[in-house]
Specification:
The chain is an alpha/beta fold and 277 residues long. It folds into two domains: 115 residues, 3-Layer(aba) Sandwich (Rossmann fold); 140 residues, 2-Layer Sandwich (Transcription Regulator spoIIAA), CATH 3.30.750.24. Strand 6 and strand 7 form a beta hairpin. It is elongated and about 65 Å long. The termini are far apart.
Length: 277
């Protein structure tokens, strides 16, 4: 199924292209409505997803033009944004089938697409879900993962990290992964590559030692070491001693409070006190 996404933010376009390909959709993107209309003519998409607001030629202008062109007139449209009631009425007259609020929930978006085209919904996964927590200490992003690796959630993680770096104007961020335990069934090379997808973001300047991993999951460490970029990673598998060592090497300001570590911690969320410190 062919889908065209028209959105002004590069991070969002890249994220949706990767995320929706996991569901088998063929995705093309455009940065503005002029480019989007040209792509739509040649691509002949089955669905157009467009952001409401652009400078100049916006979604309303795009839809007005789309509705008088034989190649695009019958293509259904989802519009992303915030809407007044009168805008909803106007948009519905232009073959808009769904209104998607910001921030876009990609899971809900996929479900809306499946419902519109009577496609089977993604199967409910019977594996243990992936637990993910992201926090920041200055230019250090701390990513805590437990349970399983899920490609969709890893793509969301990469998008979250990328947007955060743009908002905070971080060009040389540091990443600290804490992964105390994982089930082995989804520790695959493909999921590992998705996990570290942020290293390919052109606006970030990744340097050796800027990615630290604290984990004693042997299957995970083995897979990580098998990918070409892993020689730049710092990997420590002695969990509690490693936490202290990585703190000293990774953050000279000692902002990661090891004094809250508990010897009997089973889950990543047990590592800190109730305040989250």
């Amino acid at each position: 199924m062919k889908i065209l996404i028209i959105h002004p933010e590069l991070e969002f376009r890249d994220f949706m292209q990767r995320y929706m390909k996991l569901s088998g959709f063929e995705i093309k993107t455009a940065a503005d409505c002029v480019e989007g209309f040209t792509v739509a003519i040649h691509m002949k998409p089955q669905l157009i997803i467009i952001n409401k607001d652009f400078k100049g030629f916006d979604a309303k202008g795009f839809l007005a033009k789309k509705c008088v062109n034989q190649a695009t007139i019958n293509v259904p449209v989802f519009v992303i944004g915030e809407f007044r009631q009168d805008e909803i009425v106007d948009f519905k007259k232009m073959h808009v089938m769904a209104f998607i609020s910001n921030p876009v929930n990609p899971v809900i978006l996929n479900e809306r697409i499946c419902q519109l085209f009577s496609l089977p919904l993604p199967p409910v996964k019977k594996t243990t879900p992936m637990l993910l927590d992201i926090s920041a200490r200055g230019n250090i992003l701390i990513i805590q993962i437990e349970g399983n690796l899920e490609a969709e959630k890893l793509e969301v993680m990469n998008y979250t990290l990328r947007v955060f770096c743009r908002q905070k104007e971080l060009v040389k961020p540091r990443f600290f992964f804490i992964i105390p335990s994982l089930y082995p069934e989804l520790i695959t090379e493909e999921n590992i590559r998705i996990m570290f997808g942020f290293v390919d973001f052109p606006e970030l300047k990744m340097e050796p030692g800027h990615i630290m991993i604290l984990s004693n999951v042997k299957e995970l460490i083995s897979k990580i070491k098998s990918i070409s970029i892993s020689h730049d990673f710092g990997i420590v598998d002695n969990f509690f001693d490693g936490f202290r060592d990585l703190q000293l090497d990774f953050d000279k300001r000692k902002t990661i409070p090891v004094e809250f570590l508990k010897k009997d911690s089973l889950y990543i969320f047990d590592l800190f006190d109730n305040s989250g410190k």
